[in-house]
Amino acid sequence: MKPGVWHRLDIIARGLFPAFSVFALLLINLLPLSVPLLSTASPALALMAVFYWSVNRPDLLTAVTAFLLGLLQDLLMGLPLGVSSLVLVLVQTGSASQGRFFHNKPFSVMWWGFALVAIPALLVQWLLSSALIGALLPFKATMISYVLTAALFPIVAWVLARAQNTLLRYV
Fold this sequence. Notes:
Structural class: mainly alpha
Number of helices: 7
Distance between the termini: 19 Å
Number of domains: 1
Order of helices and strands: HHHHHHH
Strand content: under 5%
Number of strands: 0
Largest sheet: none
């Protein structure tokens, strides 16, 4: 017996959930949060989600999807086009290839791996943005962004893990 239309739509929607979650985190990054001393820095929420899904479900968040989400991030945040795309594709391909390493390891290993991946990712983003804009962007903001990104990764990963266990069990 063939599955019904609603069942197929449900499976498609569940399969698109990783991309939707990255998009939702992109939108959260756009919210104007006025935190003293952090006005120019924000956590790289999309980077966290791309890393998480690339390690845990690389079949549902491909390099093409990461590229498109990166373009969207550049457009929404006013960054030079292609910078976030390159960074997210590099993170996706590198993380997806190391998924087996993180499998059945404690969360602290995944957190450490993310912290190591986030450093060059944010540095590449800073360097390329500075080069394409033609002016050196504040490096302090990049470092604050890194600290926030690494510190908040467990919270974002926990939320994504709960969603994965709930929504993607049968996908």
